[in-house]
From TrEMBL:
GO molecular function: oxidoreductase activity
Cofactor: FAD
Residue ranges annotated for the FixC-like C-terminal domain, each copy included: 374-432
Organism (species): Marinactinospora thermotolerans DSM 45154
Protein name: Electron transfer flavoprotein-quinone oxidoreductase
Length: 433
């Protein structure tokens, strides 16, 4: 039986960050990946944000396999035939340390795992962890694998094995498996020439665009996205599992609706489908997190439920990296001190509470619940778009009406009470202040 100070299960961003952080302390580290290489089975519908990555790998942008730097971000509220957009660009996002980047997960995850290897971690792929090894007192002391004689002892095991974490469930640390706490992300990768992407999105050089959409998922709680790469674009949806199941609509149908929308179709005209993928993601927020530590075990990334779905913030990779980095450092320190009890490993949660990882989740803990309402995904987008259309339509030969009158009339026509809109808007606003 082989022994390591720290065994990390899963070579996604959380696992590789944990392995890298632990290896830098001098601990012996094994990083176990089920796929043939890191990123082989991972799907990503978002943007990689560099703030936390800069703390882990200084000047990461000089080495990471980035496709484009996101310099344009658009938030779009839609109905079937309308859209209202808030479009923001910043010259500050075109230079280091950069605000965000698009990258293929197969490339990015392999690069990050390689950084962990360079720090001294050992990477083993095509190996499935099948369970936990325990001491007589219940302390986790390693993992079992699908390899013959492949049991591995560890001072601490770090579970980074994704949203359906086997290890978190076996250890009794999982939150309640409410379908409302999970979303299905589905996306298509479409080929377009670099010149076409630059022209259609108003980009140049390595500039990239990110579009987040609300109101385009047939009333199912969720949203859609469109991101640019060098010579491809990704378009997809992220919708609640229970809402999707109740609707009877397939995710590829939702993507087709997004692609056909008059505000999106011009971006994608003539694009060729290269890839389709789908993946579960946590969306329950702070109140649906797993317990983060048990004796000899820490939980990170999607396995812990660390994914934020709060309006224009759709983030997961930065929380994965932040939690993995903290877990690796705490695990190595606890092994070195000879104390891997739950009390000793509680330092991990304390670290996350003091950082953006849990402080952001706590601040926006009510937002996931509010954003799952039908009003937010169907009534409010129509109200906003109808009101905007009335305000911007020249009403000749009649005199213009005031904004308050337009809002009242539009709300009545859409079956929406303005007081409900104000109440929900105030609750969301309070979460962001």
């Amino acid at each position: 039986m082989t022994r390591f100070d720290v065994v990390v299960v899963g070579a996604g961003p959380a696992g590789s960050a944990a392995a890298l952080a632990a290896a830098r302390t001098g601990a012996s580290v094994l990083l176990v990946e089920r796929g043939p290489f890191p990123g082989a089975k991972n799907m990503h519908g978002g943007v990689i944000h560099g703030g936390v990555l800069e703390r882990l790998i200084p000047r990461w942008w000089e080495r990471a396999p980035v496709q484009r730097w996101v310099t344009r971000r658009t938030t779009m509220v839609m109905t079937g035939t309308q859209s209202l957009s808030l479009d923001f660009r910043s010259a500050g996002w075109t230079r280091p340390p950069y605000n965000g980047a698009t990258a293929y997960r197969s490339e990015f995850d392999s690069w990050l795992a390689g950084e962990a290897e360079r720090a001294g971690a050992r990477l083993v792929c095509s190996t499935t962890v099948t369970g936990l090894l325990r001491a007589p007192d219940g302390t986790v002391r390693g993992v079992t694998t699908d390899r013959e004689g492949g049991d591995i002892e560890a001072g601490v095991v770090i579970a980074c094995d994704g949203v359906n974490s086997l290890l978190t469930g076996e250890a009794g640390l999982s939150a309640a498996r409410d379908p409302g706490n999970f979303a299905l992300g589905a996306k298509e990768v479409l080929a377009l020439s670099r010149e076409e992407i630059d022209e259609r999105f108003g980009l140049s050089g390595r500039e990239g665009a990110e579009i987040e959409m609300l109101g385009c998922t047939a009333g199912i709680p969720g949203g859609a996205f469109l991101h640019t790469y060098l010579d491809t674009v990704a378009v997809g949806v992220v919708v609640s599992v229970d809402g999707l199941s109740a609707s009877g609509v397939r995710p590829e149908e939702l993507i087709a609706r997004v692609k056909a929308h008059p505000s999106i179709a011009p971006y994608l005209r003539g694009a060729e489908l290269k890839e389709y993928s789908a993946h579960l993601a946590p969306q329950g927020g702070y109140d649906a997190l797993a317990r983060l530590a048990g004796p000899g075990l820490l939980v990170c990334g999607d396995a812990a439920g660390l994914c934020l779905a709060a309006g224009p913030w759709l983030e997961g990779v930065n929380f994965a990296i932040g939690s993995g980095m903290a877990a690796g450092e705490v695990a190595a320190r606890s092994v070195r001190a000879g104390d891997v009890s739950t009390a000793a490993l509680a330092a991990y949660r304390n670290r996350l509470e003091a950082s953006f990882v849990l402080s952001d989740h706590r601040r926006w803990r009510e937002v996931p619940r509010l954003l799952r309402s039908q009003a937010v995904h169907e009534k409010y987008p129509r109200l906003v778009c109808d009101a905007a259309e009335r305000v911007l339509t020249v009403p000749a030969p009649r005199p213009r009406k005031g904004l308050s009158s337009i809002l009242r009339e539009t709300a009545a026509a859409n079956g929406t009470r303005l007081r409900d809109l104000v109440r929900d808007g105030w609750q969301i606003l309070r979460s962001f202040t």
